[in-house]
Amino acid sequence: MATEKQPTIIKKYANRRLYHTGTSTYVTLEDLAGMVRQGDDFVVYDAKSGEDITRSVLTQIIFEQENKEGQNLLPVTVLRQLIRFYGDSMQALVPSYLEFSMNNLSQEQQKLRDQMTTAFGSGAFQAMEEQVRKNMSFFTEAMRMFSPFPQGGAPGASAPKAPSQTEEAGDLDALKRQMADMQAKLDKLANK
Known about the structure:
By secondary structure, this protein is α+β, with helices and mostly antiparallel strands. It is built from 6 helices and 4 strands, in the order E-E-E-H-E-H-H-H-H-H. Helix content is 58%, strand content 8%. Strand 2 and strand 3 form a beta hairpin. The mean pLDDT is 80.
C-alpha cells in the first residue's frame, strides 16, 4: 500500500511572517512559489485561529508574480472574464474546467518542449524569449511614438530622441525576416 507524502505545514503569524514547520525557518512568498514550482505541497494555517488560508496565500503569490515585470500569465481579458463568473450560474463549473485545462496543459507541456526542441533546436525557447523581448521593445517604442505627450507625461517635457529612419527600417526588416523564418518553421512543424 503506497503512502502519500503529507503536505508541509506553514503557519502565518499576525506579523505576516510565514513559518515552515518542516525546516523550523521563516519563509517568504517567493520561497513558497519555489516550493510550488518544485511540486512540494504545503498547507498554510493562520497561527492564531488555525484557519486554513492556503487559497489566499496562493492567490497572493499569483498577485506578486503578476506584478513582476514581464511575468504576466493572466491577460486582462481573462481576469475580467473570471470576475464575471463570480455570482453567475456558471460559477460552479469554472473551477473544475480550469483544473481540467491546467492538468491537460501540464501533461502536454513536455511534449510541446520536445517538439520545439526537435523542430528548432535546443536553444528554441531562449530564441523565442529573446524575440518576444525584442517585439515588446519594438511595440513599446511604437506606442511611445503615438503617445500624445512625451515620456515625461506632460506637455512641454522634452521628448526622447527618436531612432533614425534607417535604424527603424533595418529593425523592421530584421523583424520581418525573423517572423518569416519562424512561420516557415511552424509550418514545417505543423506538417509533421
